[in-house]
Amino acid sequence: MLTVQNVTKRFGSFTALEDINLEFGKGVYGLLAPNGAGKTTLMKMIVTLLFPTKGRILCDGKEILSMGESYREKIGYLPQKFGYYRNDSPRQYLRYLGALKGLERRAAEVRIDGLLEKVGLADVKDKKMKKFSGGMVQRVGIAQALLGNPEILVLDEPTAGLDPKERARFRNLISEFSKDRTVILSTHIVSDIESVANRIVMLKDHSVYCDTDCSSLCGMMGGKVFECSVPQKDADSFEMSHLVISRREETGQTHFRFAQDGEKGLPPQAKPVQPDLEDVFLYIYRED
Amino acid sequence: MRVFICQLKRIFRAPFFLGLLAVFLAFDLYLVFSEASGHKNDWENCRRSVNMVNSVAEETGTKINSTDFKKKFAVVLDSHKRDLKSFYHQKTGKESDDLSVMLDNLEGNIYQMTRGEKNRLYDDTTVLNMENILQNRFGVYRNTDFKKDGETYIHEEKLEGFQAEFIRKNSAALQSRVKEIETDGEEDELYFPGNMCRTHGFLYGILFRALVFESALLGVLIMMYIVNFEFMHGTQALAYSSRRGRKLATNQFGAAFISGLLVPALLMAVVLPAYFALFNFSNLWNVSVSSPLNVEMSGIGFFPVITWTRMTVLQYLWATIGIAFALQAVFCLLAFAVAVFFRNNYAGFIIYAILSMGIIMIPERLPWSTPLPVITAANPFTAWKNCGSWLALSEPTLTYPTYFPVLFLLWGAIAAVVIFFGVRRFRRADL
Question: Most buried among A28, B65, B120, B281, using CB within 10 Å?
Fold first, then answer.
């Protein structure tokens, strides 16, 4: 159990996070917030790259900073941006990170081969990474995060640069991996979180906005999301007067999905629809 | 251990390391070979002089004041005089007993001689010169009065208090060392004559100075490279959140420090054997380096090598190698200290270069009215500049027997304090 207790993080006069309280048990936690809301800051504090200005983070009741290696050996981390050694092959790269993670050499070799297979890089495991595409590098990053068989997996934008097939492979990998483990992932691709996360944590104004499961979160928007079509000549004025979530042009008509509190001013042709996580995201962060 | 080995591999595979090591080795070998093969000045002759003196020592022994030496040297000298006569007759068809006439005539025709003939003439000349040098050797020390020189310096610089006392004390120590040289037999020992061979000046003042500079440069680059390695590659988030965490800095320091010390070892392992293969010291390893023959031209005068304690040529070489390694350790520690504060190789290197130049210039600009010139001169950069006069008579601020212990204690402590605070800061730094 990972507990974030009254954590505040300031960088000079800028407050990135204010009085955050969260608990992460087993399962997949999706961290949702717009850019600059403090997701990466929170993740970096969890992996001990940043230190809280106030408050503390506990792992099974012990403060993580005092646990040192015994805490870090439980962590797997994929940063939003990470570098690699251009002349190393994925295998060499993972060997080095395996050594840093304290893995025994032979066990590491077996695990590296298995993980490269799982992320679809088995045929290029001895090729230099400088020739890799962004997606391939990202998959090496995912493999390194899983390398130490971590109890707590922290993934910052893990699907960035992956094609839909790879994203599906990643989601399956995470689902399989998350049994009896804690996975905290942030992404802008809301559908990734929707399909794998057991709980959603949303940050707003540098604080926790909500910490709940996906269906409850979508339930909060029940009766507030509608769809309708309007003539194309009226589309712009409609968009100005409503909180539009999506817009699609059809023959002579513009199809809108929009959110609205109450039925006042609701176009007669509007039909209520089942809200999804993207609707919630766009509704909550409409002013950001 | 695996992490440590990984760091070592990173250093030894780094293109800058391999490239600079090759360039430095090539340059040092060029120094040794060009100076020994006559491309520059008179170094082929110098090499022959060194080897000739060494082979004379084999025949005569090294106690130049002993009857045995005198007898044997007379035999060697006679043999070379006869050889010169015969060579003179062979080249001119004339006979002469006057050495200066023979030498003048032969040297006038040197451009018509074969290489073998030139070498023959040069070997004979070397032995004849040795005779003159041996006869005049006592002049060097007997005309020296360090106490008087010290008082003159104190008067000229208007020194008083600590500074005057410092100069007086060290002048007196030097004078008593000269006395010791005169009485303990060091004065009677053969060495490569400085004004003929410049052996000491080349080996320590040129070759070792180059070796120490190159080692320091490569050591500093290694330190900066490895300390900032993860930051340069953008892998710091992965590396420092791993189980090893920020303790990785310890492995990095260990690997870089050992590699830094390996640099002079690698350079010396190639360059010194090459030098000693060309310049044969085999019969003179055990003579005192403070021999009255070890006097070279410096500026407008002759500068004798007077070490603070009796040291043989071999001991002085080992001591120099030891100091070179200790200086390398200090250079590397300082580079690590700079690197942990400035996590950018370019900035770190520029700051290191500015610091080193500043530290060299500081002592010269401080007033003698304070002890500061003496304290600040005990620094690794000035010590490098003074290479060739280590453990021996040198400039006033550098001439005291405990110069190197003071330097290593002071700068070891400075580096340790800066590293302590740097590492502590890094352990609590947001990455």
Answer: A28
Classify residue B127 as exposed, middle or buried by CB count within 10 Å of its CB (0-12, 13-18, 19+).
buried
Q: Is residue B199 part of a domain?
A: yes
Q: Please list, in sequence order, all residues whose beta carbon lies within 8 angstroms of the beta carbon of residue A254, skipping any fewer than 6 positions away.
A: A229, A230, A231, A232, A235, A238, A247, A248
- B242 CB near a chain A CB, below 8 Å? yes
Q: How many structural domains does chain B have?
A: 3
Q: Which residues in chain B come in under a pLDDT of 70? A: 35-41, 137-142, 298-301
Q: Looking at the structure, do residues A237 and A146 belong to the same domain, yes or no?
A: no
Residues A158 and A112 in one domain: yes
Q: Look at chain A and report how many structural domains it folds into.
A: 2
The whole domain housing B24 covers 2-42+187-427
Task: Give the model's pLDDT for residue A286.
Answer: 76
CB contact at 8 A, A186 and A46: no
Q: Is residue B54 part of a domain?
A: no
Q: Are residues A211 and A232 in the same domain?
A: no
Contact A100 B428 (CB under 8 A): no
Among A42, A49, A129, the strongest candidate for a mutation testing the B interface, having the largest count of B CBs within 10 A, is A49
Position A277 pLDDT exceeds 80: yes
Residues in B closer than 8 angstroms to A47, CB to CB, are 237, 241
Q: Is the pLDDT of residue A35 over 50?
A: yes
For residues B413 and B385, membership in a common domain is answered with: yes
Say yes or no for a CB contact (<8 Å) between A77 and B248. Answer: no
Cα B407 to chain center, whole Å? 17
Name residue B80's amino acid: H
